[in-house]
Amino acid sequence: MAKIISMDGGNYHTLRKNVKKQFVVNRSLTDPAVIERCREDAIRGISNYLIFRATMIAKQQKDDGATAAAAAAAATRNIFDEAKREKKPRQ
After folding, report:
1. Which residues contact 75 (CB under 8 A, 6 or more apart)?
2. Which domain holds residue 91?
3. What is the structure's pLDDT at 33?
4. Would you say 48 and 5 are in contact if contact means Cβ atoms under 8 Å apart?
5. Do the domain assignments include residue 72?
6. pTM score of the predicted model
7. Which of 45, 48, 62, 75 satisfies CB 3.0 to 4.6 Å to 57 for a cystine?
8. Does residue 16 form part of some domain?
């Protein structure tokens, strides 16, 4: 996921280092409520980024002549297609 998110900015290593740092900091959490809050924060961050990225792609495609709705739908499909290609089975 970090590769996909950092594709435009090229900050893959920095992003990966920051995510790893958060996991290390929160490694000792045992309270289910706090763990759930951290999980929700992570999901919200990824969701916000995907919406931002889809909006940017839609604006670019709209400038190229596509309708806004079609551009947003295509952008969302592109993002999820990229994520599927990058997803590797866990070992």
Report:
1. 53, 54, 55, 56, 57, 58, 61
2. 30-91
3. 93
4. no
5. yes
6. 0.54
7. 75
8. no
